[in-house]
Design goal:
By secondary structure, the protein is mostly helical. 48% of the residues lie in helices and 0% in strands. It contains five helices and no strands. The protein has helices spanning 2-19, 39-50, 70-79, 82-87, 104-115. The mean pLDDT is 86.
């Protein structure tokens, strides 16, 4: 009986080990298509839902500039530390002001937009 259990354990171990092998290098390469993040498709909704309450025209609550157009948001990303403000952990520096920090997945979209070249469409 003990030999049967030992054989079962050994065979099980061998099967588990074999099932974890990759037969080719292509099995290890992620071939998920990469979609570029654009302002129109991804970022505009984030800005509209979280920023334009204060960053309107004219800006209110001490907001320094409007964020209503692609050009305004792009300029803020390039020259006004938009990503640093939305991703900050410092409550005194964080945007949206006085609100909770945006979810990391939302911040990651803005970062990816920058990394993809701040594309409009």
């Amino acid at each position: 009986m003990r030999i049967s259990i030992l054989k079962f354990v050994i065979i099980g171990f061998i099967l588990i080990t074999i099932s974890c092998e990759n037969d080719s290098e292509s099995d290890l390469i992620d071939v998920t298509p990469v979609n570029l993040v654009t302002y129109d498709d991804n970022v505009k909704n984030i800005i509209d839902n979280n920023c334009i309450l204060c960053h309107n025209d004219p800006p209110i609550n001490f907001a320094p500039m409007p964020l209503l157009t692609f050009e305004q948001v792009k300029e803020a990303a390039e020259n006004r530390n938009l990503i640093g403000r939305v991703s900050s952990e410092d409550i005194n520096f964080l945007m949206p002001s006085g609100g909770p920090r945006l979810p990391q997945s939302t911040i990651d979209i803005i970062i990816q937009w920058r990394d993809d070249g701040l594309l409009e469409q």
